[in-house]
Write a structure and sequence with these properties.
Elements: E1 3-7, H1 13-27, E2 32-36, H2 43-59, H3 61-72, H4 91-100, E3 104-107, H5 110-121, E4 128-132, E5 149-152, H6 155-163, E6 171-173, H7 188-194, E7 202-207, H8 213-224, E8 230-235, H9 240-249, E9 256-259, H10 265-271, E10 274-277, H11 281-289, E11 294-297, H12 303-313, E12 317-320, H13 326-335, H14 338-351, H15 356-366
Parallel strand pairs: 1-2, 1-3, 3-4, 4-5, 5-6, 7-8, 7-10, 8-9, 10-11, 11-12
């Protein structure tokens, strides 16, 4: 077998799912290659797509909602390999696939899946092709006949795919693939000790890498007003400017530990009682796998709304909008209610699928 896993770096979720599947193959002693769709596009187009996506989700939610809805409207299948306005952009990827003769190609983004379907139907490639849907909604662009198998987040997504005419025997509900790190974390006590946290106090993990500096600051200042004894682990992700600014703002408040990107997210989740985050498909799945109650912030229209709704419907999350006083009220009420927290922990553990990546790999190997 010669295996390629291809993602697209719009946000971090598609890449993290691809890496989780790679880990699962490696645990079986198998090698695979992981590549980003954008590296095969003309440089200016790759930059444009990245800029347009980041601009819409951070600066113009209304434009993103409109774009998402228009592209999701019923019409012919999404076929970038056939569209005159698009197909020229993917020539480098097609050459790569033909030259390297992969036997199995797994995509965690819908564009490579659509391309693979069209290229295989025309005889240009011969690999077995698989889609891994990394949110709790199947957008129209995912719905293509001709793939060998779909791996989906939930029964709801499976129904959406079936309704498009995909045979049920080509669909497996695995959950969203997450790293093996979430199945092999240290004890709660060890995790807290590693982050210099009290073993007795409430710990809230705040992931604000997807928030603007202004929104991050406003939210943390509201958290600082909470009367209960709480410790905060605050990650700004790869934004070093935000990290330094927030460190200065909260330098005198010892309750806040502010840092940039860390690969130790599973350890942080183990240490925490609650996570406050945007509802990306991967982070929601990671928290569920850890049995961690979630406060979900202002989801992006479309896929994040579906992710938030799924976690809420499971009883494992509370979704809130940015509004003065809402952070204090929501968090204060939750950390004071141990019965509610325990109920949410149990719901999260029940809904979590920590072995999703392994299930994807095992199904592929049996195909």
């Amino acid at each position: 077998m010669k295996i390629l896993i291809i993602h697209a770096s719009f946000g971090a979720g598609h890449k993290r799912a691809a890496q989780a599947i790679m880990e699962a193959f490696q645990k079986k002693g198998m090698e695979c290659e992981v590549r980003d769709l954008l590296e095969f596009l003309p440089r200016r187009m790759a930059k444009f797509y990245s800029f347009a996506y980041e601009f819409m989700i951070t600066k113009s939610r209304g434009l993103w909602r409109l774009t998402y809805s228009l592209v999701n409207a019923p019409r012919s299948p999404y076929s970038p390999a056939k569209a005159v306005s698009q197909r020229w952009q993917f020539a480098k990827l097609k050459r790569f696939l033909k030259e390297d003769n992969f036997t199995h190609v797994i995509s965690t983004h819908f564009t490579p899946s659509a391309l693979l379907t069209d290229w295989k139907s025309s005889g240009e490639i011969k690999s077995k092709n698989f889609s891994v849907i990394t949110d709790h909604e199947a957008h129209r662009c995912w719905k293509r006949t001709g793939l060998d198998h779909y791996f989906v987040a939930s029964e709801t997504v499976a129904r959406q795919i079936k309704d498009y005419g995909i045979s049920p025997d080509r669909i497996t509900v695995t959950g969203i693939p997450i790293s093996n790190a979430f199945s092999s974390v240290p004890s709660r006590e060890s995790a807290r000790t590693a982050w210099n946290l009290s073993l007795q106090e409430r710990v809230v993990l705040v992931l604000c890498s997807a928030l603007t500096m202004k929104r991050s600051s406003r939210m943390l200042h509201e958290f600082a007003e909470i009367e209960q004894t709480v410790q905060y682990l605050v990650s700004t992700g790869h934004d070093s400017v935000k990290e330094e600014n927030l460190k200065k703002e909260f330098s005198k408040d010892k309750r806040f530990t502010i840092f940039g990107f860390s690969p130790r997210i599973a350890e942080m989740m183990k240490a925490a009682d609650i996570v406050v985050t945007k509802p990306g498909g991967l982070i929601v799945s990671e928290a569920l796998a850890m049995g961690l109650p979630q406060i979900l912030l202002e989801p992006i229209p479309g896929q994040e709304e579906a992710n938030a709704q799924f976690a809420e419907n499971q009883g494992a999350a509370i979704c809130i909008r940015h509004k003065r006083g809402i952070f204090i009220k929501t968090l204060s009420n939750l950390i004071s209610d141990e019965k509610k927290l325990e109920k949410m922990r149990a719901a999260a553990q029940n809904a979590g699928r920590p072995r999703a990546a392994q299930d994807v790999v095992n199904t592929i190997l049996r195909s």
